[in-house]
Amino acid sequence: MTTQERIERSYEPGAYAAQARGWIETNLTDALRTDRATQEASLAEKIAFEAAQHEAGLVGITWPVEYGGHGLGLREHLEANREIGLSPMPNAVNSIGKELAGPIIMTVGRDDQKRDLLPKILKMENIWCQGFSEPGAGSDLVALRTRAEKTADGWKVNGQKIWTSGASKSQYCLLLARTGSADDRHKGLMLFAVPMESPGIDVREIVSIDGARSFCEVFFNNVMVAEENMLGAPDEGWAAASRVLSIERATNRMYRSWRFESEIDHLVAACRSDNRTYQILKGYSAEIAQARIAVENLKGHVETMVADLLNGQQIGPRGSLPKLYWSEAHQRWAQMAYEVTTRFPLDGGQALTDARARFETIYLASRAETIYAGTTEIQLDIISKRILNLKKAA
Question: Do residues 178 and 147 make contact, with C-beta atoms less than 8 angstroms apart?
């Protein structure tokens, strides 16, 4: 079925999910599955798999056709995300490009930027990283000090970014830099699309607790950025960055609720494969029940937000609610699941070996879930001030 045929047909509940499910079942190889303790797929294999997802209609679902998308709606997006979550697919290589850079370019970018940059994100020709956090400006983003100075040849950027996921394999950086005084806080901030091959950019990988090398420090030493690489108008950086974070916390990564559910199902199924581990699991029945409840609450958050968006409502600060709830609940679950796997007998079968490997990885990665995309403290502050309208204590 062509993209145009999909656009012209009326929405049929479940039809897009069936299409997505069938494609995943056919194309998800053992090397790509996160629930198998096999040799992990290479970066090139993951990139090819992601590009194929776009061709199959699992990525860029709501993006306009003229920019490489499929021109469909949030209902199809939600259906595909359910299937992605329920499958043991690897995390996206280009999540920053598809979930953050792409939406912000569509919001504030010029027409020529949209035509040039957006299709290449979906085709996996350009991988993006996000240059927001700094050593002294993580959750307090307006404290950033990376500067962009106007010159006759464009903008000269100097500064340092940290925890820049995927920078060492990216072609572009969505960079937030300060053009005014550091005292201006929300003013004088600008977004740029910076080619990572630009002279003066120094990327240094950081080895994380799980042995991965995804996080990076990025240094900008007199990096010249062309005027045409500005995203949005001068002084629009903070408003655009806020939109990015709102997007990240709300409609993006809808699959998390269903991935959470599939992890619970995986652990239960693995424990049932051996009577000894099934007896161990029975001791955690209350914790598993709480995790099941958390999953259903998260699904409700996501589905309510989709319904509100379809009715023309804005999400705004409400995007902090599912982000806060998911990160706290999933972190508790990951710790419990890992604890269970540490009690597995050493002579267990392949199902236990697979589960042990998966949940160790999930546990280690989960330690950052209450930090990235805004810490728990930041989410609570947003909820208290912008949703509950509470005032600071005297």
Answer: yes
- Same structural domain, 305 and 377: yes
* Tens-place pLDDT, residues 191-238: 999 999 999 999 999 998 878 888 899 999 999 999 999 998 877 777
* Gap between the Cα atoms of 187 and 234, Å rounded: 10
Q: Tokens 């494969």 map to which residue?
A: 273
Residues 342 and 289 in one domain: yes
Judged against a pLDDT cut of 90, whether residue 9 lies above it is answered with: no
Paired strand residues for 137: 134
**What confidence score (pLDDT) does residue 251 get?**
63
Q: Give Cβ neighbours of residue 117 (< 8 Å, ≥ 6 apart).
A: 101, 105, 109, 126, 172, 193
Is residue 372 one of the residues assigned to a domain? Answer: yes
86 lies in which domain range?
3-93
> 158, 219 in Cβ contact below 8 A?
no
Give the integer Cα–Cα distance in Å for 388 and 346: 51
Residues 275, 333: contact at Cβ < 8 Å?
A: no
- Residue 192 in contact with residue 199, Cβ under 8 Å? no
Structural domains of the chain, count: 3
83 and 153 both lie in a single domain: no
Q: Which of 87, 31, 90 is nearest to 263 (CA)?
A: 87
240 inside domain:
no
The residue whose two tokens read 């989709």 is 306
- Assess if residue 260 is contained within a domain: yes
Checking if the pLDDT of 246 tops 70, the result is no
Greatest alpha-carbon pair distance for the chain in Å reads 73
Mean pLDDT of 48-53: 98
Q: In terms of domains, do 83 and 21 share one?
A: yes
Residues 259 and 352 in one domain: yes
Instruction: Give the tokens for residue 332.
Output: 């508790």
Domain contains 205: yes
